[in-house]
Amino acid sequence: MPDLPRHLKQLEQELLALDEGAMLLEVLDGFIAGLLVCPELIMPSEWLRWVWDSEEGGEPAFDSLAHLNKLIGLVMQHYNGTARLLAERPDHYGPLFAIDPRNDDILWELWIEGFETAYKLRPAAWQKCLADPQTAQAMSGLRHLINAVQHDRQLSEEQYSTLCVTAPDDITRWIVTLNAWRLKNDELTNMPPVFYAPPTAKVGRNEPCPC
Length: 211
Description:
This protein has helices at residues 6-17, 25-37, 44-52, 65-88, 108-121, 133-150, 157-185, and strands spanning 98-99, 106-107.
């Protein structure tokens, strides 16, 4: 992964410090991209919990309200920044992929894991964009990558290697295509933005997240 801006470095450190169920930064980036291009708006109150516990969608456990607010603020900063980039400068959009330090391979599989989590939050909603040939192709391609990661034994080693070469550029193109369709067709894009209000009461370790 290229050098990260300060807030993403902080976000990465905070995620790594949580339990093993928390998303890695690359997984979170795919998750956020999926949320943003989904044909239906998914509110933070629903999806934030998946960042803390990507396996079960459970409640987070934080020692203090300040810690909770800090992490939510960093997540929402990345969410809003990605949304602005896709809306205003889509040609500059690039997913956050991990890089294997041993051979410089792009580990796109982590990113697609996060996208799949977002996809599963509204599986029926994605049918809305299948009438358009370009978005239908994008969705078909992303689903193919999801299936390849889940069932990679069905692909030969050569087929999977070829997929790994093309996947990073394909993912970038497909997300930009899906977001352009959403901005053009989603009536919610004309609504005022939703602002996140941080919780104001202390959160206990075993108490449900107020977000």
